[in-house]
Amino acid sequence: MARALLEHEAKQLLRDHGLPVQDFLFCPTVDEAVEAAQKIGYPVVLKIVSPQIVHKSDAGGVKLNLKNEAEVRSAYEEVMASARRYDPQAEIKGVLVCPFAGREEELIVGAINDSQFGPVVMVGLGGIFVEVFKDVSFGIAPVTLAEAQEMLESLTAYPIIKGTRGRAGLNMEMLKELIVGVSEFICKYPVQELDLNPVFCSKDSVSVVDARILLRE
Ligand code: ADP
Ligand code: MG
Predict the structure, then answer these.
(1) Measured in angstroms, how far is the CA atom of residue 163 from the centroid of ligand 1?
(2) Lowest mean pLDDT among 21-35, 89-103, 157-171, 174-188
(3) What is the pLDDT of residue 188?
(4) Rounded mean pLDDT of 17-28?
(5) How many CB atoms lie within 10 A of CB 37?
(6) Which of 7, 44, 45, 108 to mutate to test the pocket of ligand 1 (most atoms within 8 A of CB)?
(7) pLDDT above 90 for 126
(8) Pocket residues for ligand 1 (CB within 6 Å)?
(9) What is the β-pairing status of strands 25-27 and 191-201?
(10) Cα 103 to Cα 65: distance, rounded to the nearest angstrom
(11) Residue 58 DSSP code
């Protein structure tokens, strides 16, 4: 049996491990969500928190770029209503409030504890690169910074990560540290599966925006 952590539980564990997780506040009520939005600073994002809802957007459970209290209040009502419509049986714990981050490159970092290979870490550029081209690379955990570098270099999308003429690259040092950190994380905890999707990345920052962790029990 495996147990899925709620998003904020997964993010807290990753943050405790020193990984660069975007700010988040878990809020069981709408008033707490409004307070959290003030604390975090507008614009914010609201996301449904329910053990049964794994793909939040599919359930209408993600609202981006909320600019004030009124927008937070109506977004809260909307995500609650959509989630209930999507799965009337779902146990809804509340919402996560996060800062809204502008357009950045989206990456995916994953890891599994494979019965044959043991712990494995994976990286790829988000969107069509992963979904259509299956452009991902793997490393046996724990990986070193040099191995993380090789993983990035073996991606077809590497020119986007490194930067090409007229286009700034991403922060390779932080990206490599994240891959190494995740590979150490999966060796340290009884994790069956881990999925960071997306990780936002620019030339000067790396930030885990969504996290799913399945614990082995
Ligand atoms: P899920 O994968 O469960 O649908 P995500 O948390 O990944 O939920 O959110 C869905 C999408 O919304 C992300 O892939 C990303 O493009 C966007 N998104 C989520 N959180 C933020 C944020 N804080 N800032 C900007 N965009 C976000
Ligand atoms: Mg996601």
Answers:
(1) 24
(2) 157-171
(3) 94
(4) 98
(5) 28
(6) 45
(7) no
(8) 22, 45, 47, 55-57, 62, 64, 98-101, 198, 209-210
(9) unpaired
(10) 11
(11) G
